[in-house]
Amino acid sequence: MSGGQPQGGNEPEELTLEQIAGKYKSRWVAILVTARDGNSQPTKGRVVGQDVDRFRLRSGLMKYPDICIFYTGEAPYPMLL
Amino acid sequence: MTEFELGRFPSLFVRVKGSNSRIREYRALVDPAYEYCIVPKGDAYVFGHPEVAFQHETVGPPNARTLMTAGGFSKTVVFEVEAVEIGGLSFEKVEFAAIDLPQEVGFEAVIGQSLLKHAVINLDWKKRLLGLTKAS
Question: Which of B21, B74, B87, B105 is the most buried (most CB within 10 A)?
Fold first, then answer.
């Protein structure tokens, strides 16, 4: 699977976090946050990078002084850290 | 007390501001079993700590530490960030360890004791709420 910039126009569209999770299933995404709730938690953003590999995703993010990165999926097994 | 809805794990979005003013925001696991907060090694570099890439076994950087993890011993660097913002709360001068958690975990940052020692946390599993406030 390819990573990096999402396909489409010049500026990525603004999406809710739920829409991002649906569009980029089980991927690491980097977003520019555009809206937050009352607890300052992100609710909307523009996806500027996405990849199944978070290390590969980071290669395109150095230019951003402020970026939000998260995984849209779930751990596939019970977790013991 | 600022309250957050619990997902499968106690987690929330946190904004970490490095001493060089660069900001990375993560969906971080909240786990008081971790003695340090954690960010990935690549972001330690972003925050102005290139020594994360220099981890010679015998002559590591002065901020190198050996840590015990579920996966065994890990040698890494520990550094201080300018601030961590969680909700409307701000915690200054918080220590982080640079560790790459397995990708499969789905988290790459952890809020551990180095921040939580300055906070009061309330976990209500029945109501699925995580409460957080700064300790007085």
Answer: B87
Chain A residue with CA closest to B90: the answer is A40
Residue B1 covered by a domain: no
Q: Which of A39, A66, A75 sits opposite B23 (nearest CB)?
A: A66
B chain contacts of residue A80, beta-carbon cutoff 8 Å: 70
- Angle formed at CA B28 by CA B33 and CA B19, multiple of 5 degrees: 100
Q: Cα separation of B136 and B133, whole Å?
A: 9
Report how far residue A5's alpha carbon sits from residue A72's, in angstroms, rounded to the nearest whole number.
Answer: 16
| Among the partner residues B8, B70, B101, nearest to A80 by beta-carbon distance | B70
- In a domain, residue B134? The reply is no
pLDDT digits (tens, 9 = 90+) for B15-43: 999 999 999 999 999 999 999 999 999 99
Domain range enclosing B59: 12-86+94-129
| Percent with pLDDT over 70 in chain B | 96
Residue B5 lies in a domain: no
Q: Specify the residue for token string 């925001």.
A: B25
Q: Confirm if A79 and B9 have CB atoms less than 8 A apart.
A: yes
What CATH number does the domain containing B44 carry?
A: 2.40.70.10
List, in order, residues 6 or more apart from B78 with CB less than 8 Å away: B36, B63, B64, B65, B95, B96, B97, B98
Global pTM? 0.91
Is a pLDDT exceeding 80 seen at residue A10?
Answer: no
Look at A67 and B23 and tell me if their CB atoms are within 8 Å: yes
